[in-house]
Design brief:
The chain is mainly α. It has 4 helices and no strands. Helix 2 runs parallel beside helix 4. It is flat and about 60 Å long.
């Protein structure tokens, strides 16, 4: 433990000498707090990629490259992903079935994005 303290003190002294750290604003918090781990879901990953494609196509449009994707797929994808999560929090079989149906809607949105992206890249 003393070695780590000595290394931290030396590192801090060198950072102050190099004007990388301002001691007046230095604060260290070593509190350990348990936190929930949010694993990525398939619908969340799909939603994120739909949004990424939408942003890329918008950048192409801003650069005067046509055609433009005709409607906002990003909001439809986000809404579907949110609805899936809200249904699955109920933890019932009906909710699971509803989540699967909404997942199918999200897949349709993704298929639409793929087709539109193919048109943009052609």
């Amino acid at each position: 433990m003393k070695l780590i303290e000595a290394l931290n003190a030396e590192l801090l002294a060198r950072a102050v000498d190099a004007a990388v750290v301002d001691i007046g604003w230095l604060r260290a918090d070593t509190t350990v707090v348990p936190a929930d781990i949010k694993y990525p879901t398939d619908s969340g990953l799909l939603c994120r990629e739909i949004s990424r494609i939408g942003r890329l196509v918008a950048r192409l449009h801003d650069a005067n490259i046509e055609p433009r994707i005709p409607f906002d797929n990003q909001s439809a994808a986000r809404q579907a992903a949110h609805r899936i999560g809200s249904r699955l929090r109920r933890r019932t079989e009906d909710a699971r079935a509803e989540g699967l149906a909404i997942n199918a809607e999200l897949t349709e949105v993704a298929d639409t994005v793929v087709e539109q992206t193919k048109r943009v890249s052609s």
